[in-house]
Task: structure prediction
Amino acid sequence: MSLARLAPLAALIVTGACRASRAAPPAPVAIEVHGALRELMHGGSTEGRVAVADVVTPTTVAVGALAGLRGEVTILDGVVHTSRVEAGSVVAGLGPGDQRAALLVSATVPAWRVVPITDPIAADDLERRVGELLRDASAADPTPFVIEGSFPILDWHVVDGPHEHGAPSGVIRATPGAALLVGFYSTKHEGTFTHMGQTTHVHVIAGGETGHVDRVAIDAGAHLRVP
Result:
């Protein structure tokens, strides 16, 4: 066959290969929510809504508060991390046991993609920057996410009882350094699993403990994982 006749065929093959390389964005993961922040904060409904063991699979990711607001629960890749307050100290645990959650947002994520965070993120710019990174990665809305890296500011708490006037009652922690953030992003769940005016609900796993993140800054070189 002549080169002239081969040229159109080669162009067709190259075009097809380029199209195949442009993978479609992953399908959105299903988000399951038990309880609602508005009910906890304003309705006083802190009873257990779901047994933690009932939502766990090897690929579950979740964040929430234990029944009675007596602690925090974070699940990553099916591993259940809990923290409670006992005599003013944080007591960490692994495994669901017989615990129930007053609030739990969860998803099943069989595989994660890694997106590098090349620029530092200031504590007062977290939600905007995370939203941008997720949109750039064609992530769904809502979506779970994980951030692994070094955090020069990392303020969090473990709840220990009902909220008063919107402020957490419990133990406040400040543990800058290497850690894992586990969160959910949504522009559609204010009052359900994000506070009003916010788009993220983020927990930390650090030194075996877990809790709800109040304020965090992120160093360049961290990695964002999305489904």
Notes: Residues 31-226 form a domain with the 60s Ribosomal Protein L30; Chain: A; fold (CATH 3.30.1330.80). Confidence is low (pLDDT under 50) at residues 6-23. Helices lie at 3-21, 37-41, 52-55, 126-136.
